[in-house]
Design a protein that fits this description.
The chain has 141 residues and is mostly helical. The chain has 2 domains: 41 residues; 62 residues, no CATH class. Helix content is 47%, strand content 0%. It contains 6 helices and no strands. α1 crosses α3 and α5 packs across α6. The mean pLDDT is 86.
Length: 141
């Protein structure tokens, strides 16, 4: 991700705007996009400063609180429930998430499942008869 423009450049742009120059003139003089100057000016009007906002950080998980308890309850009630069924149930409750998000949530909660015979899912391949020994090659010479 790119870094925001410096405060020095933003302050010079705001000073030029306050001196009466247009956004186009300021952008050309400072060699930045016109849209940047317009956004800085709007930010200064709205917040009192043209300083950049916070970048990055942690985004909280979508499945939390009551939704977390709901999903864990559904898994307890029916261990064979699919990710798509859980996703549909969450959508009915007003939370639209992707099945992969539900899978990651279950993994974080230690509730991910391996496919096995008892769950009625994929079974291990059965072993066949052992390979027989090969006859030695006879010497053609």
């Amino acid at each position: 991700m790119t870094k925001p423009y410096s405060m020095d450049l933003r302050e010079r742009a705001m000073a030029r705007l306050e001196a009466g120059e247009t956004s186009y003139q300021v952008a050309a003089a400072l060699k930045v996009a016109v849209s940047s100057v317009i956004k800085w000016a709007a930010r200064k009007r709205r917040l009192g400063s043209a300083a950049p906002g916070k970048m990055g950080g942690h985004r909280p998980y979508l499945i939390g609180g009551a939704h977390r308890l709901f999903v864990l309850g559904e898994v307890e009630r029916d261990p064979n429930v699919t990710l798509h069924q859980l996703t549909a149930a969450l959508a009915e409750r007003g939370l639209n998430v992707h099945p992969a998000s539900v899978g990651r949530f279950l993994h974080r909660e230690g509730r991910s499942f391996k496919k096995n015979r008892s769950a009625g899912r994929a079974a291990q391949a059965e072993a066949g008869a052992p390979a027989r020994a090969m006859d030695p090659l006879s010497d053609p010479h």
